[in-house]
Amino acid sequence: MGQGLISDDVINQIRDRVDIAEIVGQHVALTRAGQNLKGLCPFHQEKSPSFTVSSSRQIFHCFGCGAGGNVYTFLMKLTGAPFPEIVRDLGRKVGVDVPESSGGYSNDVRAQLGRLERLNAAVGAWYQRMLTEGPAGAQARAYLESRGIQLNTSEQFKIGFAPPEWDGLTKAMLKEGFAAADLVAAGLSIPRDQSSSPKTGASGHYDRFRSRVMFPIVDLRKRIVAFGGRVLGEGTPKYLNSPETPLFKKGHTLFALEAARDAAGQQQTLIIVEGYFDAVALHQAGIRHVAATLGTALTPEHIAVIRRFASNVVLLFDPDQAGVRAALRTLDLFVNSGLSVKVVSLPEGEDPDTYVRKHGAEGFTALHKAAPSLLDFAVEHSLRTAEAGTVEDRIRAVDAVLRILQKSAHPIEREERIRLVAERLGLSQQRLIDRYPALAAQDQRRPERDMKAPSPAAGPARLKGNPEERDLAHLLVQGNLSAQDLGKLSPEAFSVPAYRRLIQCAMQHLGQDGRLSVRDLLDALIQDEECGTLISELSMLEQHYDDIPAHIAGCLETLERRGRERTMGALIQELKVAERERRDDDVHRLNRLINEMRIRKAGVAPVALTSAVKE
Ligand SMILES: [Zn+2]
What is the CATH number of domain 3-94? Predict the structure, then answer.
């Protein structure tokens, strides 16, 4: 599911015929360490090996950067090729035929993609020639020089020039043997009005890009999939991109990501800027973990791509109103995405290009280090509006802030911010919480103990949640839970979404005897967006429990108690609101519910209460 049109059957068949250790071993030097194999991670820079491969489970996991998955995940991450292509490649190696029609693309489409790929490569080379040779390129060369772009940078990014002719490119490509239809499909040529004579070949089409500095947009497989052009002089639009084509989906692509991927992986951070020149200038200054959006907002698909390379994102938008709005718009997208996001604001009047030229890489790094998180940035923005405005402005701003805070999945962070906001606006914390009861209700989840006492089995900080949630998930994935234990689990009892999903899926893979097939669970979830790497980590994580059955029983008990406390907290909160709003029926109902819960919590029936009185 979600993996194109290749049937699960074929996917599993191929996977079962390859050995992940062998495939990984072709790219990473592996040595045996107990049951597993270890090596230096190809996805981040490290000196001692934390990259682990398990032959028995056919998965890999890196304890350094958190990358994990099965053989498909490994090859996708390594090569950047799409899933159907990886499956097809591996299938060919092990002699499993992947039906052509089931690869997501028909033969016709695949043939066209191949032609467009070759066309784009030829066009990129032609633009480059137009820049470096000939008099027409002189103006463009002078322009690049004025923007501080050095020759070798220009070569690295294959920057080119579209001359100021109507059909210079179209003519040249037709002469090289490319078809007019493909030029149109690639978004490079535009057919002239139908009324003009269609017989005249070249003159039937004109070039989309004219008199522009050209930036090829290269995908993760190093193919040119599109172009972006900056007009020379005063034309409009200032920037023009290829339209969407069979090769190019704007919302999936970032400029310079291919050039940034290694540095981003090593630093686990990707900086996102808004323009071609910003990205190129930063790369040139030695800041290589930088990619640019293509004049569109970030999309969920972008986030999915970014997550494959980095766990931290730095947004670098212009300090003007539009830049601030662009940063704020990403809040919904990033919240609880698992990525940590910071916003760097440049001083007024600067852009990344001018800033890095003045202050160098060091100045830039300092700016990055001091940057607020996206959430803090958004809160700060609302607060500033609030402090400056009228009473209505302030109320509106408070609402905006609270809505933002509600999005945070981290109760402790959230509480800290509510305190800050209350202070800044001279309001009581309680008044803010009263306005948004949901803020407080969720706070009941706050696991105070966690801060002091990490579980002995705690792995890297990525494993979220209370110790009992973590340990239960760990023991579940390692097949230690009995049918009886499994019967006591419910997804809702877990506070971390990834665990909830894990438990939910486990419930679907219970056999007749109520036991879990770990193998099936791994198969189902290892490529899962939300909990794939969680599963690989839990599978590889060693156990440090003295008495496993006793530990499981303890965890289950704590989990149940916390669930009760959380429900109780939510009910009390609801009751407070109902009392304030004088909804008598609700007050009555909630009081009864709360009392019932208290009695149950005491673990005694009313009869037993009488006997307690006697003593
Ligand atoms: Zn790693």
Answer: 3.90.580.10
Ligand 1 centroid, distance to 224 Cα (angstroms): 28
Q: Which two tokens stand for residue 204?
A: 């039937």
Peptide bond into 300 cis (omega under 30): no
* Ion ligand 1 residue ranges (Cβ < 5 Å): 41, 43-44, 62, 64-65
User: pLDDT tens across 263-306, in order?
Assistant: 888 888 999 998 899 999 999 999 999 999 987 788 888 887 88
Options 3.40.30.10, 3.90.230.10, 3.40.1360.10, 3.60.90.10; CATH of 252-371: 3.40.1360.10
- Tell me, in angstroms, the distance from the centre of ligand 1 to residue 307's CA: 13
User: Taking the model in full, what pTM does it have?
Assistant: 0.62
> 27 alpha carbon to ligand 1 midpoint, in Å?
14
Tokens 């919480």: give the residue.
Answer: 433
Q: Are 13 and 102 in contact (CB under 8 A)?
A: no
Widest Cα–Cα separation across the chain:
108
Pick 107-248's CATH classification: 1.20.210.10, 3.40.47.10, 3.90.980.10, 2.40.110.10: 3.90.980.10
CA atoms within 13 A on the CB side of 591: 8
Rounded to whole angstroms, the Cα distance separating 345 from 553 reads: 50
pLDDT per residue as tens digits for the range 56-96: 889 999 988 888 999 999 998 888 778 888 898 899 888 88
Other beta carbons within 10 angstroms of residue 386's beta carbon come to: 20
Counting Cα atoms < 13 Å in the Cβ hemisphere of 126 gives 20
